[in-house]
Amino acid sequence: MRSGTAVFVEIYNFLEGFNVKIKEYLRYTYSELIRYPRWFLMRKVGRFHWVRWCLSEDFSGQSIVPDILLEEKSSHIKCLDSASFVTHHLREFGIYQGIFIDNRVVERIQQFALDNPCYANRNPSCGFLVPSLKVASNYIKKEILRANYYNFERQCEIVSVLKTDPILLKIAALYLQTTPVHVGSILFWSFPANPNLLQKSKSAQVFHCDLDDFRFIKFFFYLTDVDTESGPHVFIRKSHIKKPLFRQLLRGRASEAWLRKHYDSDDIITICGSAGFGFVEDTYGHHKGTSPKSKRRLILQIEYASHDYGNLHDMMDEKLLKQLPLP
Ligand SMILES: O=C(O)CCC(=O)C(=O)O
Ligand SMILES: [Fe+2]
Prior knowledge:
Layout lengths: L3 H32 L1 H9 L3 H6 L2 H4 L5 H5 L6 E3 L3 H11 L1 E7 L1 H13 L2 E3 L6 E2 L4 H8 L5 E3 L3 H4 L2 H6 L2 H11 L4 E10 L6 H6 L13 E7 L10 E4 L8 H5 L6 H7 L5 E4 L5 E5 L5 E2 L8 E9 L22
Antiparallel strand pairs: 1-2, 2-10, 3-4, 3-5, 5-6, 6-12, 7-10, 7-12, 8-9, 8-11
Helix pairs in contact: 1-2, 6-11
The protein binds 2-oxoglutaric acid and fe (ii) ion (FE2).
2-oxoglutaric acid (AKG) binds next to loops.
């Protein structure tokens, strides 16, 4: 039997941990409120289905810019189906797979990823070139689960072509029912690691729901071949419309066990594909990346919403970006 002191220490540690979490939460909430008040408000109310519906075109009668709807030809992107088919599929399932980017574009972004520093676990002080992954990880004495490229939109000129691609814009316009606003293009690696739950959670590798606007949509493109060894993306079909009220209140936070019990196992889909393969997803539904087992994954994410709150662009003041002093 454990002594009274051991139980007391355990309770004390638990309360202290709780206290730290509450403080962290309050600090984060306060800084969000001061820096991005509209975003703050959206995050509080946008989690509820009925609020999202009230702000949709069905309710508000907002119209879509016709130019975006006319064009459906692209020199860099191919889609297996028409934009209206994709939109219907998205509405029903929350995901559509079957969009491809041209090989030359894939090669250009892959080259960019090799030539420019990425930042370990999103820390702007931990820049390294991807061939030095092991050395960088040894240097910071931490596993690197995920590394992103800051200022990628500005530095990789092909992004401005992709983000205005007529096929992507048309799908986004039909799904969002408004003129889509580009709110960020993010390029990042997931590396093989043995992370704990907290590390996985910080790297979007546990199930979660994004809440980037009342209506938003993300296009993902694999830039390396992705199989079950290389951290495929996982999505729960229909979870963007089937979410109990208390899960909406918790902004979709739910354990894997709860999700597996409440959703049909056939609807939990793991997405594999070769470099260039893409899918579009309403990430208000439950989704996650997985931790690669043996092979790294490079992925591009292009996001549209109805507003740009200005905080999703992965931009960073160059003066704050530091490279690790690796041999
Ligand atoms: O890595 C992935 O496949 C998912 C990433 C994600 O869900 C996120 O960044 O919010
Ligand atoms: Fe996400």
